Amino acid sequence: MPPFRSTDRVDFRAANESDATVRAADSDYGRNRISIRRCGGLTLVEVMVSITLMATVMVGFIGTFVQSRRVTESSVLHAAGTSLIYGIIEQIKQLDYATLLPNYEVDPFAPVATTPPYLRVRINQNTVAWIKVVHTAAPGAAKAPTTTPAASVTAASAGAVQNFLGSLPLSTVTGTASQQINMDVWVWIDEIPSVTDDVSEVKKVTVVYTYSYVDGSVTRTVRNREVFLRSRFDQ
């Protein structure tokens, strides 16, 4: 048997250290495999639960967006209807007191069966309307209502003449109408001179207007009343 040399001790120590390094590496590899196994992909149940939660949140957002869009469109249509009627009222305020408020002359351009008295106004760049009125000359009693008629009241029952202006498009620039407003206008012109107040020529103009538009699946109807005075001296 050969004698034991010091170099053999060194080789033995190196072999032990190498074995220890391998065992430590194996231990780290095992821990990493366990960690990787624990951090693996999601199960089908977890995926389905995640999709359900995401869908619920998205449905809420979509509902909010749709409601916001509907409210915005309703506000735009309401403002458009109000703008149309006040455009008509401003034209009435500019009509000549003696000859055009109302007009008793037959207008050759008026539609057939449209007889005086009426007011000629422009609705938009393509539409002109002859609005028939109820004119009460002095000393007759005023016939215009003093309050806004209910939505169920008809023109005949209110003592007015119905002036359905048709389905008015919001814009005719492109030639298409994605939304329309149905408008009806009733007008009374009452002469109300007052000897006590030393007022000899004054007319009270009462305009009751009704317009409707489609708001989603619901038809909205708005009715209101506008009253103003005209005199010969406000020309």
Description:
The longest helix has 50 residues, at 44-93. Mean pLDDT is 81; it is low at 6-10. This protein has one domain (56-234). The protein has helices at residues 6-38, 44-93; strands spanning 118-124, 127-132, 134-136, 163-169, 180-191, 202-215, 218-231. It is of the alpha+beta class.
Which helices and strands, and how do they pair?
Blueprint (H helix, E strand, L loop, with lengths): L5 H33 L5 H50 L24 E7 L2 E6 L1 E3 L26 E7 L10 E12 L10 E14 L2 E14 L4
Parallel strand pairs: 3-5
Antiparallel strand pairs: 1-2, 4-5, 5-6, 6-7
Provide keyphrases for this structure.
alpha+beta; 2 helices; five-stranded mixed beta sheet; 35% helix; two-stranded antiparallel sheet; 235 residues
- Describe the sheet with the most strands: 5 strands, mixed
Order of helices and strands: HHEEEEEEE
Task: Estimate percent helicity.
Answer: 25-40%
Mean pLDDT: 81
Question: What would a concise description of this structure say?
Answer:
This protein has 235 residues and is of the alpha+beta class. The protein has 2 helices and 7 strands. It starts with 5 loop residues before the first helix and ends with a strand.
